[in-house]
Amino acid sequence: MAMTDEQIERYSRHILLKQIGVKGQRKISQGRVLIVGAGGLGAPAALYLAAVGVGTIGIADADVVELSNLQRQVIHFTADVGTPKVESAAAKMRAINPDIEVRTYRQFVDASNVMDLIADYDFVIDGTDNFPAKFLVNDACVLAGKPFSHAGILRFDGQLMTYVPGQGPCYRCVFREPPAKDAVPTCSQAGVIGAMGGVIGSLQAMEAIKYLTGVGELLTGRLLTYNALTMKFREIKVRRDPHCAVCGDAPTIDAPFDYEQSTCDLSSHQAARREFERSVAEQEQR
User: Fold this and answer.
1) Mean pLDDT of the chain
2) Which residue, of 138, 154, 186, 254, has the greatest Cβ tally within 10 A?
């Protein structure tokens, strides 16, 4: 399909890149990405994917915009408070780029609908903010053979990795099971510096773009962590676990399921942090 003069001008900085060019921009325009969560991670990812011209972008979230969201969820404005997040996000995405198709899903993503939601997409961005949802997205994508980007942010820390079927470990290979109920606080209880969402969510968008175009090296087999206070990134090599319950040699999970959603107890955060460090140390020893 030929590009219009307006599209050539809009994407001119991409077309100048030898790794992208017209061919790569067409791949982006034909791409289909689902963003699960229109919050701190999903907001910047959605803006950038819309701006670069991903042809079809789905965004799933059941919540409405709250005032406390605005310091990090940059796709939502003060006037949007009380508006469904998917509607607020879609309006900004279409305003940035009227060429794209935005599909909205105002619903909680759970075991009953996740497989249907991801079915039509080439790549999934996990912008959720709780462990049950992250394991749900992981398991569904592994079972459906869908690549996805995992990420999480809290306080001044962030992390992300990318799963591609047959090319590396899944999220469950690294973390196995959600932490004990109430062990890890959410952003609403522990806090998060607003720009963390921008840093990590933008990296998720970059992973989606790289996957669609086939350029560069994805974060497969690598967990990237970032601490804003020290301005340090750390890359941890992670390996597929042959005993993984969903992608291992003898998987025991054959359908997505819902873990109990937890409330958070800040006093348990240190214990959860120790468990995270234990898991990372174990990965480094493999």
Assistant:
1) 92
2) 138
Is 187 an active-site residue?
yes
Listed by start position, the domains of the chain span 31-285
Q: Domain 31-285 sits in which CATH superfamily?
A: NAD(P)-binding Rossmann-like Domain (3.40.50.720)
C-alpha span between 208 and 213 (Å, rounded): 9
- Residue 186's pLDDT is 62
For residues 266 and 129, the model is more confident at: 129
Active-site pick, 141, 170, 173, 187: 187
